[in-house]
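quick one before i forget lol
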Amino acid sequence: MKYTGFILLYFLFVSCSEQEEKDVFIPAQFDIDSTSITFNYSLIDVIQYSDGYLCCVDTHNKDSLSLVYLDRNYEFDSIKSSLLNKDIKFPISEIWTSNGNLFVLNSRLEILTFQNEKWLVTEEFQFDTDRKHTYFSYEKHFPIYEDEDYIVRSCCSGEFGGAVFFTNKKTKKVYSCEATCLASIEKVKDVYYLASCLPHGDGRSSIITIDDPSKLFEIKEENQLNDCSWYDIYSEDWDDLSINHPKGFDNGYKDIIDTIDLLILGMLTYENHPYFIYSNFDESYIGYLDDNQLKTIDTIYKKPMWYGAVRDIKHNQNLFAIRNRIMKGMLIIKDNRIKIIEFKNSN
C-alpha cells in the first residue's frame, strides 16, 4: 500500500510537470519581406480601398494630388488617382471607409463622400475655440473598431492627450479611458489589448488591457464626449497650473507597459496570441509580452517605423501606415507573414 501511494504521487508529479511544459509559451516565427517603391509624395495616411491602397498625401501646390491610388502590386494607377482627385478643391487630412463608402475630411472641416464617381459634401463641422482640449466632432462619426458588443472611437491631440470611447450597442452608454494616441486594439481571449504611441519628444508608448469596458469611467456629459482629454480638469485661472481628475477616471483597465524611448506601430493577433511591432529610433522589431515587458523575437527592418495618429483600424486591421521623418510607407500582415513597403522619393 505504501509503494502504491508512492507510485501514485510520482505519476501525479510527472503529469503536472509535463502539463507545465505543455503550457510554456513558444512565440511564433514570422516571415519578413520588404521592398521599396518610388513615391514622390509626402504620405499622411493609407487605407485599403478597391482591391488596392489609397494614400492621402500632402498637397504642396495647386497641381499636386491629394489622393494617390496604388494597385495590389503597389504600382501607381493614374486613371483611378485622376478620378479620385476630380473635384477635390481643398487639402485632405483624413480618409476612411464605412459600409463600403469612401469618406474624406478636407481643410474646411467638410466631410465628403465619393458617390457615383464624384465627391459630395455630406457634413460640415465647426471647431469650438472656447474649449481648451476639444477635438473635432467628426471623429465621433468615425468608428475605428467594432465587435458584437461595442463600437469604439478614439481621438488624439498629441501631447495634449488622447482617449478611447466604447459605446455599448444595447444600452448606448459610453465608457472611456486615456489612450494617447491609440495605434491598435485587439480582442484576445475576451480581453481587449490597446496599444498607444505618442511620437513626441522622447516618445512614449503604452499597452493596457480591459476585461470589461463597462467598468471604465462612464461618459455622461456631452462636453466630456467632445473632449480628447476629458480626464484632465484645468483651472479657469490661467495662473493655476494644477490638473485635477474626475473620480474614477482610471477605473476598469490595467497598465501593462508605459515607457519612453519606444514607439509602437501596432499589434496583431496570431494563433490567439498578441504580438507587437515597435521601434526605438534606429530599428524596428516584432515581439510579445513577457512579464509586463516587450520581448523581441526578431528585427524586421533597419529603420524606425511609427505613425502617431488615430487610424481606421476597423477596415485596416492588418495594414499599418508608416510616417516619420526617417521613413514613410506601409506594413501589411497576413497570418505570420509581414510585408514592408518603403516609399522613396526620387526627387
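fyi The two ends are 86 Å apart (CA to CA).
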